[in-house]
Specification:
eleven-stranded mixed sheet, Rossmann fold, elongated, 456 residues, five-stranded antiparallel sheet, 3 domains, Immunoglobulin-like, alpha/beta, 23% helix
Amino acid sequence: MKSILFLVLFLAQFCHAQVSIGHTTLTFNDPTRSGGVGSGGGPGRQIQTEIYYPATSAGTSTPVASGTYPVIVFGHGFAMTWDAYSNIWEHYVPRGYIMAFVRTESSLFPSPSHGDFGLDLKLVAQKMLDLQTTNALFQNHIYPKVGIMGHSMGGGASFLAANNNTSIHALIGLAPAETNPSAIAAAPNVQVPSIVFSGSSDGVTPPAQHHIPMYDGVTSTCKSFVSIIGGAHCYFANTNFNCDFGESTSSTGISISRAEQQNATYSILDPWLDYNLKDICAAYEATQLYLANTPGTSTQTTCPNVPTVDITQNGNLLQTTTPGSSYQWFLDGQLIPGAFADFYELAPNASGVYTVQVTFPFGCATSPNLNIVGLENIMEEYIIVSPNPCKDFLVITNKGNQAIQATFWTMLEQKTKSVLLENGANTISVSDLRPGIYWIQFEHSSGVFLQKCIIE
């Protein structure tokens, strides 16, 4: 299973590399505050944002590529600007994400306002989702999930933005710095899935005073901490004079290259984002594998491993015994509409590859493939149900040579009644059942069979 997941993710990265990157600039507005950067957003605080997105061709305001894409809002580091992070958008836009880089609070003098920066990130996250209906370029191209990511000061401001904010869906801190107001104090109010990346040789924001207290404070049921051994503070970004100069005076023991640090980060963050922002089920297990197996990292996580999902076949009935909070069946990789119980009834002469996806309180998993070839409608050899639909009475003919137990279930898997069918025709009163669609489950020595029944 490990080798298959690694191969799938490698191929996914190769395919994503063919996507073009478009760019546009939007200025959002907060009428309740003043200042900011940019113009054209209306009265109040101006929040100029550089947006990179999957496009039909590279360029400015070129059409968005076909599809819908989740959004990642990014906060830059102290004395840094958005263009220091081209490595981030060049990696994640081809993977199917829209990246929004907030340009406010980048000056040295006056010193930046961490509180305003956090509010800017929070507002832009909401404004980006609104583009689905308010902006001609992005209309019908926004997948309804957004994450906030930040480096250094922007990482700490991301915690401020996520403080009691359940409208975002993920938080990613790259060497997050303590802020004023305190990101460490805000961390216990962060309840969304969160991941913190830390260079063990970071002397700019030493992990023990910055990254680790933030991670420890997060109250999300699924959080992860990644320490990159020998990693630096500035290596999450491109070469940048201000950041690199500060690191040269404070960090010691850096033992890996910038490219090695970024590759280790992407190895874990790629599937993490695919699960939390794209709802790709298999990416959850892949994240757990990469957390445990990425060379040069030391990791911890509160996210549980998901159980193994199984399928059993009994006659025309497929079923999983893996308990979960929801289920979805697939045929040949395509979702089967309405197939959301822990069992699925095969149609006469059904064939194809069947799987079931089980969602747990956190995480999900998909069963191995089950190949069905030319299944005949075995049930009809033993059972005839008529009329169907019916009203007051239902005649069930038992053609076998043994008694068969028949149980009526609602579509919500509530058991309503059970009868024993003798050989021959059995007249069953259904006047005690409410009108609706029911499953009749037949238990025979040859297997368990299902038949839909409509009561009018």
